[in-house]
Each structure stands twice: as C-alpha cells, then as structure tokens.
Amino acid sequence: MITIRKELTKDAAPREALLDLGYGDARFGKVSERLREGRLPAAGLALVACDRGRVVGTVRLWNVSAGIARPALLLGPLTVHPDYRRRGIGSALVRRALDDASSLGHRAVLLVGDAPYYGRFGFSSEKTANLWLPGRYDAHRFLACELQPGALEGARGLVTATGRKPPKPGLAKLVAVLRSNEPLPRAA
To answer: N or C, fewer C-beta in 10 Å, the chain?
Structure first.
C-alpha cells in the first residue's frame, strides 16, 4: 500500500538515490536547480510516497519570489521509481503538495515541466508570461498555478530564491565529522 507523508531526515539518502535514478546528473544543470541550490524546502512541503517503508516517490516545494515582492513556491523535482510509475503516485504527490501549500496559506506555485501533465492540476504558462527564470529554459514549459485567484495578477520580473538556508555546522561538528572519516554534510 502506498502512503504519502512528510519527508523525514532518514529519507534524504533514498530520495537522492531516487532522483539520481529519475534524472541522473542532468538534474543539477536545470534552471530550477539554481533556485533550489543552498536552500531548504518550504517548511512542511517536502513529501515522499512510500511502499512498506521504501521511498518510491518524492516532491518538494521551495520558497521563491515571482518577480518583485511576490511570494510563491517552486515545485520540483517530482519523480517516482520506474517500477511504480503509471499508478497515479506522481499525481497524488502533486495534489497533496498543492493541498498542503494551500492549507498553509501559500498563494501560487511555479514549475518547469510538461504542460500536458501539469495542466490537469491547474498549471499553465499564461501566468508566467511576464516572469523569467535565472538561466535557459523553454518558455512553454514554465508554468504556474494560482492557489488563490489573482495571486499572480501583474507579476513581472525575475523569479528568485527566497527560502531558508541550511544552518552551517559549527567547527566542533566539522572536526568530529573529519575525525570520523564520514562524508561532509551536504545541503538538503
């Protein structure tokens, strides 16, 4: 049975392995990644789909500004393990992410993705016509969904990252990690 829940610290390694499987290293070159780099997901908006405790799907939302002083979220990356695709898990993750974002008072969500897939959730390129991203992207794949009508009315300008940055580990923690021969901590 598939369950969707908030991501836990223990899900980091399986999530990264799943993203590697779904996107490979190409994911680090995407324009959306520029907005996620060095940031934490929006509070309470990192989700995983699990089958008997195994992470089989993931989606996260990130705080951004849609132009000047216009708070929004950026959805992605979304992926589902190849063995679990075509079962509605991706759709369930998107619906849950949008519902959770709306219940937390967020007003709009942006993403770069396939319009035929995301259109069923209310995403379109209509509201992003006067917005742009920090890098190369296909304009027809830059989509938005208003969780509250009019949230992106008049939005214009560069989309920028506004989310929380992870805390920097103290010197004592770094020394302990170096002495233990464990890998250095990475941003989430």
So the answer is: N
- Tell me, yes or no, whether 187 lies in a domain: no
Q: What is the domain range of residue 145?
A: 2-180
The answer to whether 158 and 165 are in contact (CB under 8 A) is: no
CB 40 within 8 A of CB 166: yes
One-letter amino acid at 13 equals A
Q: What is the DSSP string of 7-20?
A: --GGGHHHHHHHHH
Q: Which residues contact 154 (CB under 8 A, 6 or more apart)?
A: none
Distance of CA 184 to the CA centre of its chain: 23
The Cα–Cα gap between 32 and 12 comes to 19
d(CA 68, CA 159): 8
Overall pTM > 0.85: yes
- Position 118 in a domain: yes
Number of domains in the chain: 1
* Residue 32: DSSP 8-state: H
Give 31's DSSP letter: H
pLDDT in tens, 38-87: 999 999 999 999 999 999 999 999 999 998 879 999 999 999 999 999 99
